[in-house]
Amino acid sequence: MTGMERVPMGPPWSVDLIADLHAGVLPPEVAAQLRPRVEADPDAREVLQALDATLVDLRSLPSVPMPDHVAARIDAALAAEARPGIAPVVSLNDARKRRNRRLGMGGAGVLVAAAAAFGIVLAVSPGAQQPPANEAAPAPTTSSTSANAAPPLALSEAELGSAVGEVLKAQNYGPLETPDRLSGCLKGGGITSSGNPLGISPINLDGKNAVMAILPAGLGQFRLVVLDPATCGPDKPEGVLADTTIKR
What we know:
Helix content: 25-40%
Number of helices: 8
Strand content: 5-15%
Radius of gyration: 25 Å
Largest sheet: 5 strands, mixed
Shape: elongated
Distance between the termini: 35 Å
Structural class: alpha+beta
Order of helices and strands: HHHHHHEHHEEEE
């Protein structure tokens, strides 16, 4: 909603509109006209009180740090978004600030309003259908390739960082075929990883067929591991062709 739009008529008003008013995200001139009318309506006032109560509850909760693998995936998405020609983001730092605002890390207003509104919707719509809890995740892509598939990226070890954007978009285990095989090859190189790779794809490293995996390495960092599928394994450290950590 912009300041050029008319103030919504009511009552009744939608929960979303009341939540926006409570969170302070409406234009000041709209909020100034809307608030006294909303506060004068008993039903709308109950929603405002529920939002206030939710704010108190959320403020009393202990802070929960974001898991490293979640932060790494968000940073990966923001890094891709920040690449020239893809989105009008000036820098990765600006993108991270946008992430913090979206997650409510820079202020609780919008997050609280969304949480409270969600709770109210559930209360008035108990029959809303929920997604199945046991829905299977899609299986990772294996080494099968079509006749029209592009050839693997040809890189030198010094160029691995330039391939991060492409590899992050892939989940292609190539000749490694399975996550278990990847885990065994990482173990052989003494590399531990807490979860699935952020991205994985066959590449050609200095003329040798290989597989590049991007692993989470803490906030704002990626670990780039290149494996030789012909020699890597749980007891074969020689199968690790490259292992480097970069900042994004």
